[in-house]
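[retry 2/3] Diacylglycerol kinase family protein: previous attempt timed out, resubmitting with same input.
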Amino acid sequence: MNSPRVAALVYNPIKVDLDALRSAVAAEEAAAGWGETIWIETTADDPGQGQTKQALEQGADLVIAAGGDGTVRAVAEALHDSGVPLALLPSGTGNLLARNLDLTLDDVENSLQTAFRGADRKIDLGLIRIRHGDDSVTQHAYLVMAGLGLDAKMLAATDDDLKAKVGWLAYVKAIAQVLRDKNQLRIRYNLDGAGNRSVRAHTIMIGNCGSLPANILLLPDAAVDDGEFDIVLLRPEGFVGWVQIMAKIFWENGVLRRTAVGRRLMGTDKEVRALNYLKGKELVMRLSRPEEIELDGDGFGTAIAVKTWVDPGALIVRMPADEVAA
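[retry 2/3] Diacylglycerol kinase family protein: success.
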């Protein structure tokens, strides 16, 4: 007789109600015919990579990430090309991957049902090698977006205690602070080996997915399984440039694009002077000075050079069975 499948649950103890979660997992694993789940807690020093490797060593058939975006990113990094699916138990203020996959938020029972009885879907994984300001080199994975400039500075300026109390409203103060920063990124880049180009921008974001919290659609053509990432350069010139960006993101992407009539009103030209889109599979960048960098909403220090590429279909994610079948 074959042994029942076993899941491992990698959880951030700050983000979950552990007693309630244990009860819900026990009920669902029994109903689905799985064995007893392996529980592994993250730490401040290890947000999930080591715990996920431990789960794989113990023979887990599925790894459930219970925590915020940092936990999900860390678990996914360790699951890269393992063939073991990732299931999401969204928690925290962002839930960026879950939002982009249209998964249910704040519903533990539904999320666990998807984990234990769902179907598998392959999605792309972004990989990035960062040469930091101190000349050290690190490599990471990301699921949603990597960013340099305004968004990374905003995250660095955000008060963590305030974020814990009021969620994404904490970024309002940080945005106001960062918008006073007149410094631009000076970037020399090569996209898909097409030759070196130079550009100045306030922000560059490389996305595997397109949506941010508050229903903001930053990269309208991004898809998690198209083998490419989408890139946006924010290049405002004064107040008018910021108005162009806000109109593009909040009105065109957020309102018009969602209906057939609205798309016809938009026409075919996606570009505005202050907002430029690119698409590719590998991007190499060199910056004129060290700049703050973020991955999936977490700061990763400063970068002086970056190489990022897409690994198509390198991560398996557990989805509701009816959605994958459709």
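[retry 2/3] Diacylglycerol kinase family protein: The chain has two domains: 7-117, 126-312.
[retry 2/3] clearing retry counter.
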